[in-house]
Structure formats: C-alpha cells, structure tokens
Amino acid sequence: MKAIRVREFGPPAVLKMEDVPDPTAGEGQLVIAVKAAGVNPVDTYIRAGTYAKKPALPYTPGFDAAGIVESVGPEVRRFKPGDRVYINHNISGAYAEKALCDEESVFALPDRLSFGQGAGVWVPYATAHYALFEAAKARPGETLLVHGASGGVGSAAVQMARAWGMQVIGTAGTDKGVTLVKEQGALALNHHDPNYLERITEATNGRGPDVILEMLANVNLAKDLAMIARRGRIIVIGNRGTIEINPREAMAKGASIIGMLLLNTPPEEARRIAAALAAGLENGTLSPLVGREFPLSEAPRAHETVLAPGAFGKIVLIP
Fold first, then answer.
1. Residue 248: which domain range?
2. Residue 16 sits in a domain of what CATH number?
3. pTM for the whole thing?
4. What DSSP designation does 192 have?
5. What is the mean pLDDT of each run of 10 residues along the chain (319 residues)?
6. What sign results for the dihedral spanned by CA atoms 157, 102, 44, 67?
C-alpha cells in the first residue's frame, strides 16, 4: 500500500510517499481502508521534531481518519468488514491507504457524515471538549472567546459551547472565516480589525470573557490577560514562541492560565470524551467542517496549509 513516511525530522519536504506492507489485524484489531485522513497542527510539530513527544523514526504521521473496515482480527465484537467508521487513534499511522487500529479506537460513522467529516472528529473535537469541560470547567451562561474560531478546533469549540448554553465570541482572519463563525451561532469578529478587542469588551458589558481558548498564545496571551473576566480561565491550546506577560494581571483578577496537550489525556478520560462526541455526532449537535482536501501525495502542501493564516475548517488527505 501507499503511505507517507518520515525518516528524519524536518520541514514538510521530509514527508515522502512510499510503498509499505499492508497491515494485518491481530487479536482485537481492525484494518481500516482509509478514505480520508485528518491533518492537524500537532502533526506538523511532531514532523518538525519540536513536539514534546517524538515517535521513533521512521513513522507514518496522522491520528485522525475515517474509512471502511477492511478486515477484523479475533475477538473483535463491534465491527465487521464493510462498516463505515472513524478512529481516534491508530497503530500504524493515518496518512496511508490502510490503518491498523485497536477496536477501542474505532467508532461508527453516522451515515449523514462524509468520510472527510469523519476524519475531522477526534483531534479537533476531543481538544475542544477537553479544553472546555476538563480544563476550563465551562458552565452554561458563561461567555467564551475562541481565537481562531474558523479552524478545526475553533469551530468544534463554538459548536460545543453553543450547545452547552454559553455565549460565544469567535475571531477569524478572513471574511470567509468570519462568515463561517457567524453561521455557527457566535458573535464573529475579524482579529485584523484594530477595534476588535474593544468590541469584545462591549459585547461582555465590560466584564470580559469568562473563558478564552487560545490557539496562538505567543501572540495573544498578554491581550487575553488584559481582557479576561474575574476568575476567568485562559486555556492555552496552541503556541509557537515566547511572550512577555505581566502576572499581576492574573493575580488581580484571580485568573488562571491553563496549558493542555491532547496526547496527555488519560485513557479513561479519552473514553468519556469519545462517548460524548459519538452522542453529538448522532444527534447532529456536532458537525465537522471540512475546509480543504488534498491527495495523499500532497501531504507536504497540506502541512504548509494547516499552519497558514486564515484557517478554515478541517484539512484532510485523500488516499
């Protein structure tokens, strides 16, 4: 089968298409014929060698995918060949024509969702869920600010927070992104507008947001501390550098800055998140947004695009 392999950490060019042996399902395992694989910012950090956890080389990138069950090993009970599924983890890597998975990592893909949408479930939605409900302890009636609300994690957070009864403000960097955020039910602002911080203050009657989901802390964290409400929580999801802040702003408001990495999620919490996501996908509360699709061979280009300004929905690779 064809798969993307990384033999050295480095720029997107290290992503190479290769022929590799087909995976074989062992006990409690399934082989999935991948129809779409999700591309996430974390994939690029791992590929570059800058992430806290590095895989052994060589490896095939990718956590998210959706497709059709091709074969099952002994003791697999919940699935059979031909079933439509999405996965939240895998053994062999998702940037490939086939992926080997443990049964506990596989979930039924509702008929109303495309494979591209299925590939946009786990990393974005699990990240958003953990950030909102585990890290921030978000409550109905609170105000949430989502920086980068038109991207995969951002749009997932907007959908979840609206369903949870929160007032949501979302920022984006393009007119298209602002329109998408507005369609998801949030107050949409363009973060290139020089007055957007004042508009957030006005929208919260001067209180500031109770919760801020921060996708680019090295740019926004100081601004977040200046506007956060008393006893507010800033959840750092993404960061690409250093920043100088004044801790007194957090002290004066009793505000918290909480960092998170999805890969640190304990197995029992991952199971709870997966159950919540499955329910949301079934009842239509959650609906992943696919921004762009690339052929598997264009994985390097997809890695460049996922970090480019103006993120819009989920980026997926099509084997």
1. 124-262
2. 3.90.180.10
3. 0.88
4. T
5. 98 98 97 97 93 92 97 96 95 98 94 94 94 97 96 94 97 92 95 93 96 95 96 94 94 96 87 91 91 96 90 89
6. negative
